[in-house]
Automatic annotation (TrEMBL):
This protein's name: DedA family protein
Organism of derivation: Yoonia vestfoldensis SKA53
Residue spans crossing the bilayer: 20-40, 52-73, 136-159, 171-191
Keywords in alphabetical order: Membrane, Transmembrane, Transmembrane helix
Taxonomic classification: Bacteria, Pseudomonadati, Pseudomonadota, Alphaproteobacteria, Rhodobacterales
Record domain VTT: where: 53-155
């Protein structure tokens, strides 16, 4: 099932509606869809490097808007829809315990999930359930998604197809390490 969704998403990158499709995928990925917008962004940017930053801007804007929809799912529709989404991603079992301490580090969680392979949609729903400050959620989402998508766009714009393998396989790990070091540094300094 996921392979079919993946192949269909990549096929959208070859159409004249690719930018619209990217916006749609970025929106739904932030609240429930399993395929990340990177799958569309990579072939789109390789095909038209001059539009790399426009593509990143569309992905960022639509991802943040989708994150707001995920927040709404957590805030108002958790019992009906949110639980099912978390079950799909095998995150429901630990969600209750996670939600208890979530707001202490909510903005950091949004930031980390927004740039790493951790399902961002889980954090958007958690933010709504725990009623994380909406301005804080929006600000952290903008920073995280812009960092992820504009960095990817910059790498593809500069290095083209050769960097594709690195992005597809290792960029999530690099973001995770970077975020871990960043949070660890703040913890050592006593900022958190």
């Amino acid at each position: 099932m996921l392979r079919g969704l993946y192949d269909g998403t990549v096929a959208l990158a070859r159409t004249r509606y690719a930018l619209w499709a990217l916006g749609l995928v970025a929106f739904v990925e932030s609240s429930f869809f399993p395929i990340p917008p990177d799958v569309l962004m990579i072939p789109m940017i390789i095909a038209r490097p001059s539009r790399a930053f426009v593509i990143a801007a569309v992905a960022t804007l639509c991802s943040v808007l989708g994150g707001l929809f995920g927040y709404y799912i957590g805030f108002a529709l958790y019992e009906t829809i949110g639980v099912q989404i978390l079950q799909f991603y095998s995150k429901e079992a630990y969600f209750t315990e996670f939600a208890v301490t979530y707001n202490s580090y909510g903005a950091w969680a949004v930031l980390v999930a927004g740039v790493t392979p951790f399902p961002y949609k889980v954090i958007t729903i958690a933010s709504g359930v725990t009623q994380l400050s909406l301005p804080m959620f929006i600000a952290a989402s903008i920073v995280a998604r812009a960092l992820r998508f504009f960095l990817m766009a910059a790498l593809l714009w500069k290095y083209g197809a050769p960097i594709r393998d690195f992005i597809e396989r290792r960029l999530g790990l690099m973001f995770a390490l970077f975020c871990g070091l960043l949070i660890g540094g703040f913890a050592v300094l006593g900022v958190m």
